[in-house]
Structures are given as C-alpha cells and as structure tokens.
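Hey, can you fold this one?
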Amino acid sequence: MEINLAKYREMKILVAVSGGMDSMALLHYLYNNADKFNIKLSVLNCDHGIRGESSTRDSKFVSAWCVAHKIPIITFVWDCKCYKSETAARNWRRECYLKALKPQVLADGSKWEGADVVATAHHCNDNAETVLFNISRGSSVAGLVGINDVETDDGLKLIRPLITVTREQIDGYIKEYQIPYVEDETNFTDDYTRNKIRHSVLPNLVKAVPEAVGGILRLSRLAADDEEYFDNLIKNLRLITKTQFGAFLLSCDEKVVFKRAAVRALKLCGVDRDYTFEHVERLYNLQFSETGKKFCFLSVTVYKDEKGLAFCKNTYLSEEFPPQKFFDYLGNNSGIYGGQPLILGSKHEVFDYKKRNLHQNLRELKFDISAIPRSSVIRTMNSGDKFKKFGGGTKNLGDFFTDKKIPVYLRSHIPVIAVGADILAVFGVEISEKVRVGDNTDKIMYAVSADYLNIIK
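Sure. Predicted structure:
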C-alpha cells in the first residue's frame, strides 16, 4: 500500500479513527511515516453510542492504541437516544471535527493543540460506492466527483489520503503488519443504503468489469476537474452572494452554468442532498417569472428578485424576533438581533465590527441618540407603522419599503427602532427625520447592520 504524503508535509493532521480496519490502517501508515514528512499526528474518536457497549468498547480500543504509541487523542461522546439516523450522526461528527481542529483546554486540564486538517479513511471503494449511489439518484455531474479533499466556508478542511487505495490493498496492509482493529457489526447488515451497494451492487459490477473501482476513480477525478473549472467561472462572474437569509444568485441565461451555481447556492442554505433535476430546472425557469414569484421545496424558499433569485432558509423566514427595549439592547450589546448583525456604538466600535465582518454587505447609519425616547424598542415591522422620511414627508412603512425597492421577503425581518407605531430608524436602510444629526447634536450613535438596499454588490 503506497500513499502520496508529500503534499501533507509539515502538516498537523488529526486522524478520525473509529477503530475499524480502514481507519487503523490509515493511522498506522501515518504513524510510520510521520517523521519522514515532518507530520504532527493526533487522533479524534467519535463515540456515537448507537451500538451501545460495542461503541464504548471501540473507543477504549482506539484510546489504548494511541496511549501505547504516545499519540494525543480527543474523544467525543454523543447521546443518540433520540437520533439514530445516518444524517444526524454525520452532522454530529462534522461538529466534532470543527471543534477538534481548534486549540483548547480539555476537561482534564490538558492543552489540546488542534490541527490543520482532519484525515478520514475513505478509500477507492468508498468513492466508487458514493458515485454509484449518486448516479442512481439522478445526480448532476457534481455527484460524479465522489469523495475528494474539501475545504468548507466554516473552516473545515478534510483530506482523504487513502482515496487511491483499494479495499484489497488495505486488507493486505492490515495482514502484513498485523494491525489490530475492531469490527462494526452494522457494516455486515443491509440496513443502510450504502451497505446494500457495498455488499451487492459493487461486487457484481467488479465481477463484470474487474477494473471498475479504478475506472470510477478516474471518472470522479475528471468530474472534479470540470467542477473546479465551473467553480472558478462562477466565482469570477460573482454569481453567488452569501447573505443573512441564505444566498443570492444573479440571473444567468447560460443553463449549464446556472444549474451548477444553483446547487452551490442550495449548499449555502444547508441543502446538500435530496434536491432533484426537476428542482434545479424549476429554479432556472423561475428566473424568467414575475418579480415576487417563489418556489418552496425541501428546507428553502426561492424568490424571484429583480436581479436574480434569493435563496432563503425556511428557518429564517419563520423566525419571530421579540421586541427588545432599545436601551437594554444598548447596555447588553451582543451585536446580533434576530440572527443578524446589529451593532450600536461609537464610530470606533462599529468600525471594528465592520472589520470583522467583511464577508457581509453592511450599512452604517448615524443618528442623534438624545432623540431616542426611553420607551423605544428594537423590533421588526408591524401593521400600521409610520415613518417620517429623512428630509420630510411621512409614509406607511410598507409604502416606504416599496419606494426603496426592499423585497417583500425581507421586510418582516428588518430591525427598526420604534415608539409605538412611530418608526425612528430602519436599520440598514435609513433613519427618520426625527433622529437626524444636526449642528447641535451632542452625542452621535452609529449603527451597523446588513445593507438591505444592496443585498448584492
């Protein structure tokens, strides 16, 4: 078994180890070659608890092996009594990866150094199973990429050193070095879809085409090259903007490019599976509908906007934000209201906040804080709200939003300062004439929030 470790030289690698054959083979190989490539090794073990005492046994086995070989290990234990699905376990495991990458002080007082990347033991056969599974579900070309090294927006970096190594090669390596491992009995059942492909579909395919596993790997790498090309094209065209409600996708007539961009926008909303060809086709056609038309599916609602499509998480749309007294918020300022950035303070304070949030479109407003009554609250739009525009003239808040071309799907989520039905400021849009800064203003307050006039730039 040969692995190209040169590209991981001088990295701090955190190996995800379950105790099974694959992860133990990876750990053993990295341990034996760590000095050669100046790799600093540590281990992460996730005890799902799904298999009861067997899960505990496996974690103890991994811990004992690491202690014997003087490898730092961090273990997470999950209470899975209510959640036993593959998806729930996968999401929890991902959270563990993110936590373990960061330096921290552990419960026993010891220091955990963190790591640069997480290494998982996915191999060539796993990749083939994934590609076959995606093909059977009618995946786009992106599904042919299979398993690859990835780096996500939230800082998770995953590497797969064994991805070119076959099941047979791992078996041979385990036997050659007599590496101990534990068996996960769920691998021998057909309870999960992947196991059915592993036990029935792939073996029969290999009987018919002996080089199938390697051939599928080559296909997945060609698909990865294509996807990298489209990723760069989408970035260069600036088609996608990450927003506080999900993502915004600029209109794009080029259907091939649009579909790939739409899939990436869905991922920014947390939808990375279960969407279909029909879903993406409807999104493409939605571009040519009237402004305000929408398409709701899975956990997102997509609105037709003047410039493109707004992908909104349904959790964002359904969330209600209780009013907060303005001066209470000021005294306990977390910088977040209703899951959105909202910082109030001096010029220096808001400038520092803007520096830390360059990935978002932010808008700064300033107003006379002495003009804010003690009874004022921060809340969202209510029926009957009135707004005295900067420069004069009073309008219903809804009409004011229409004048400013604020999309309907955003209006009920924009924070305002209100005294009863009187709106003194619409954060991210405009202040009222009643709180304008004048020559005699003693104390100016600055407010930074999402720029609702320019969701995309």
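The mean pLDDT is 88. Let me know if you want another pass with a different chain boundary.
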